[in-house]
Amino acid sequence: MRPDKVLTIGIDIDGTVTSPSSIVPMMNESFGKDLRYEDCYEYNLANVYNITDEEFDQWLEDNGERLYDEAPVHGSADRILQSWHPHYKLVYISAREARHRDVTINWFSRYSIPYHEVDLIGSHDKLAAAKRWGVDLFLEDRLENALQLSQALQIPVFLFDTPYNQGELPSLIHRVSTWEEVHDYVERLSLRKSSV
């Protein structure tokens, strides 16, 4: 990266900017379960809730708008993203579908989440979008995405620790528990880049 280039940060939304546990109460309500966030040991919630992928897709079709509207902010994401906005380019790349743009932008506005770009790609394959936006690092909660992005782009990925993303990580993926940890990493990375 050239020293004069602004650091471009790719950011997932669900489970990264929003609390990763926010889907559980709604799914419990819909499927008559009493699961805890800690019981969500894999990303595919159809397996966790013992339903078909089609049933989950239909549930998301019916409840996505409410889920995206009611999700709480993940920790201090709002404050830290506000502090980054003047210094870095913030590009949100999400598996949400384009039809959920209004509810997404309204949620960002409600919580004063700043952005430069919001790319709702409707797929978990974020590689093409990350390349298109030229991201220098990525924030994610899905292990498969973190592995793909770090390997294909040779960029650091910060993986928010959840019950569903456990496993060995290669050196470019950094497991983090809080937004403060990510902030410290990004500040160090930014300082290193600017001194090159």
Automatic annotation (TrEMBL):
<dbReference type="InterPro" id="IPR052419">
    <property type="entry name" value="5_3-deoxyribonucleotidase-like"/>
</dbReference>
<keyword id="KW-0378">Hydrolase</keyword>
<dbReference type="InterPro" id="IPR023214">
    <property type="entry name" value="HAD_sf"/>
</dbReference>
<protein>
    <recommendedName>
        <fullName>Nucleotidase</fullName>
        <ecNumber>3.1.3.-</ecNumber>
    </recommendedName>
</protein>
<comment type="similarity">
    <text>Belongs to the 5'(3')-deoxyribonucleotidase family.</text>
</comment>
<dbReference type="InterPro" id="IPR009206">
    <property type="entry name" value="Nucleotidase_putative"/>
</dbReference>
<dbReference type="InterPro" id="IPR036412">
    <property type="entry name" value="HAD-like_sf"/>
</dbReference>
<dbReference type="Pfam" id="PF06941">
    <property type="entry name" value="NT5C"/>
</dbReference>
<dbReference type="InterPro" id="IPR010708">
    <property type="entry name" value="5'(3')-deoxyribonucleotidase"/>
</dbReference>
